Amino acid sequence: MTFVALVDPLCKPSPFFSHHHWYSSLLTSSSSTTTSFIHIYNTLIHGFSASLTPYQAKHINSSHGVLSLFPDSIFHLHTTRSPSFLGLNNLKLKLLNSSGSNVIIGFMDTGIWPEHPSFADDGLEPIPAHWRGKCETGFGFNHSNCNKKLIGARFFSGGYRAFFGHLDHPASEFRSPRDHDGHGTHVSSIAAGAPVTGSSFYGFAGGLAQGMAPNARIAVYKVCWVSGCLLSDICAAFEKAILDGVNIISISLGSSRLPFHLDLLSIVSLRAFSGGIFVASSAGNEGPSWASITNAPPWITTVGAGTIDRDFPAKLLLGNGISITGISITLTRESKLTRGFHRLYFGGEISSSKFSFSRQLVKGNIVLCLTTGHMPRMLLGASLLSLGAVAMVICHGSIDPNGMISEPHVIPTITVGILEAKLIEDYILSSDRPVANISSQGTVEKYAKPAPVVASFSSGGPNSAVPGILKPDVIAPSVNILGAWTDAIGPSSVALDNRRPQFNIMSGTSMACPHVSGVAAIIKSVHPDWGPSEIKSALMTTSNTHKLYYYRNVSLSSSSLILDESTGKAANPFDFGAGHIHPERALDPGLVFDLGYQDYIDFLCQLNYTKNEIHIISGKHANCSNIGKGQLNYPAIVIAAEKVGHKGVNFYRRLKNVNEAGSRKYKAKVVGLAGFYKIVVIPKKLEFSKIDEKLSFKIAIRKEKGVAKRTSLWVGALIWHEIGGKHRVRCPIVIFSRQG
């Protein structure tokens, strides 16, 4: 079994002339056989990874200077119109100046397809002077594949090969930074893809495709292979990324929900934060389950899933005259399927990959499938195609109850919601000869529907690791997102898919994460002196909590809150965090909640982590006896109702003025919670006299007397309004009952 050993570098015994020599002695003293290292860690963390026997692991774990031994573990990926939906096309040109090309985003994913036009370097300035990385050669990849856009590419497979014994498919997987899967190519283009005109997925979502930050540079760290992404490889990639000089790390994969001292991804991301690196990660696709969020540390910006206003409407006309509306990106208007009626067959409920269809029953028919959970839907479509079905109508169940996700199936497919699927099922079961005609209406590119809506699959809070920290932090576009695609595999990723489009349409919080990474790159380019906490605060305090409606092609903020797809009701901060990102406002937030590395050390002390555990997490010794009652200066307040009571609780926060005008006055306003909790802000006004000035305030929360419990969740916000100005700094307040 493979392990990662975390050591205290200061504990190296004096006889050893190097840490490598010391690590070698730990291996040789614990075994009579030769054991080689997989990775040596020298910067963010110190230690090594290796394949160890149970005896070796026990011996090394008890050795002097070894802080902890982590079993290697497998992580999995959380698997256009979005720039204009976010308002980026309307930004003033001065905000998108050439300094944006000095920001480097590091992607830890499945690699990249370098020849794709999304990664062309036309018009870019020379590679930033602070860049120290390189392009590694390997199968199907060499130095010439990099340019002024794709400035670095590395691959990490040591942990994977040690864990599984080999690469599953060495030829097709490319033992190099080249992308065999498509996911890495897709997310890289979402964040920083160059403009590509005339892009589409077989005519759907056509137009100009570009990333959030088209001038930003891309550095690729391939850590994911066919069977997953190994933690030891991810740690090695983090080390290289920091040494190479990235400014932002985008990681669309899931972590554990372990305490921070047992979670290596939490540990390396905190070390990255200490180096000024903004880390964005996906929230996970395990919604709508309660407390399903992954990537919980407050030093990571965790991104949930929202929809955009584009649609791909399709129709299913039943033989009884009822018309069913769904969506499709695989049924074209010119398809022969639209010219007549075809028999309908009910394929039943499907919850696993064990399909048992009869060729006689499905051949030549349109098959209705009701899927549950995260079963392999692409394989389901491929199976039906191989048996002679002409089309599939699919319902995704609770993970997509309204039928909003359209997937690139190898068989013509219409996605419908639960209610629509029930109508079709009832018709099939009640008719002697059920038939239907299917048709596509193409793409409704803009203003097709109110958006955003929180996608049902998006993992939500509360944060099981630290209930007092709001997660997700924000949501971003993640449903039916157009992005670049690899030429190594078809868009459905099944073996019989021979299509090779330049672009593909995908959904998942994996797609939300690079939207935030790209916007963070824009913010960093405009404010190069800002650290990760300032960027995160700007994203959170300026976000939207309401849907957008449109009148005569003008976007108008609605009084209607963002909805939760899974319930059809108003979403709450455990669904969308502080809200849906608003890039233009985030560039000029007025005030920010600033946080430093020491603030997080103090935070760990307040969570009652031991000195040794904090040493493991931070790499430094902490004296928690010197820590007062200060609180983490997070841009959100979350508290269990049982902790409030009538005596109440006080929160303390600090704001930093980042308004270039300097002198500014703000007035506090509390919204929501009235009649249930009394919120008092002291002082009620803040007056800043210069830029970078910091002012503190207190929020006192008391339960109103005589109010009976009527719910398990209370939501409000503290908003600092700039007096005589445009800035509005919003801090969510969430009070929840642990008793449900």
From TrEMBL:
Q: Name one GO molecular function term.
A: serine-type endopeptidase activity
Q: Which GO terms describe its cellular component?
A: extracellular region
Alphabetically list the UniProt keywords: Glycoprotein, Hydrolase, Protease, Secreted, Serine protease, Signal
Q: Boundaries of each Peptidase S8/S53 domain copy? A: 100-565
Top-level taxon in the UniProt lineage: Eukaryota
Report the main location listed first in the record: secreted
The record's listing under Gene3D superfamilies reads:
2.60.40.2310, 3.50.30.30, Peptidase S8 propeptide/proteinase inhibitor I9, Peptidase S8/S53 domain
Locations listed in the record: Secreted
Q: Which SUPFAM superfamilies match?
A: Subtilisin-like
Q: List the active-site residues.
A: D109, H183, S510
Q: List residues of the Subtilisin-like protease fibronectin type-III domain.
A: 631-735
Report the transmembrane regions from the record: none
Q: Name one GO biological process term.
A: proteolysis
User: Any idea where the Inhibitor I9 domain is?
Assistant: 14-78
- Similarity comment: family membership: Belongs to the peptidase S8 family.
* PANTHER family per UniProt: PROPROTEIN CONVERTASE SUBTILISIN/KEXIN
Q: What is this protein called?
A: Subtilisin-like protease
